[in-house]
Amino acid sequence: MGRVSLSFEEEPSHYKEKKACRVCDDFRSWRKKKTMQDQSKLESSGSDLQAPNDCPLDTEQLGRSTWSFLHTMAAYYPEKPTETQKQDMRNFIDLFAKFYPCYHCAADLQENVKAVKPDVRSCYTLSNWFCVQHNIVNRKLSKPEFDCSKVMERWRDGWKDGSCD
Ligand SMILES: Cc1cc2nc3c(=O)[nH]c(=O)nc-3n(C[C@H](O)[C@H](O)[C@H](O)COP(=O)(O)OP(=O)(O)OC[C@H]3O[C@@H](n4cnc5c(N)ncnc54)[C@H](O)[C@@H]3O)c2cc1C
Description:
Layout lengths: L12 H4 L10 H11 L21 H17 L7 H17 L3 H13 L7 H18 L10 H7 L8
Helix pairs in contact: 3-6, 3-7, 4-5
């Protein structure tokens, strides 16, 4: 899948300068890159390395929190949105894809949004659209795909077996 091509001037400085980017990497990769840049900080980079809870987010923490927000927002979007609400949601998704702070994630997302337009007709179609988007990322990261027929149970109603009640 191709990247959105941005001109050199548009790229964030951490990319131009090939600096470590915390929200673009998991904590261990970020720490490794940073340590390579700063030889005075040659510290442990073992597999159990974790940031304390009150540190800035890495790409996994940011991703988890963001998906939780996006799926929940979609699940609580109206069943019958007005034309204004539909347009607002399209605008939100466009802007979100521009400003998501993991730069390479955002570039891919912009491509995907262009390829398959957000389906803003109802909370069901929008939830399915976000589910498909999330599965695109899951595939890219070799994670299991989620069954999109269960997206409302996962993010709004709770599982049919009552385990969330
Ligand atoms: C827009 C966006 C783009 C991203 N792009 C990248 C990237 O390019 N590279 C990268 O390394 N990371 C990326 N991430 C982060 C990545 O998707 C994960 O959030 C992160 O790796 C943490 O994964 P996780 O296994 O904890 O669960 P997550 O993938 O964060 O999922 C959280 C929970 O959502 C549920 N879920 C899983 N799949 C679906 C689905 N399809 N629909 C509904 N619910 C689902 C599951 O219950 C899961 O536990 C991106 C995140 C976002 C929001």
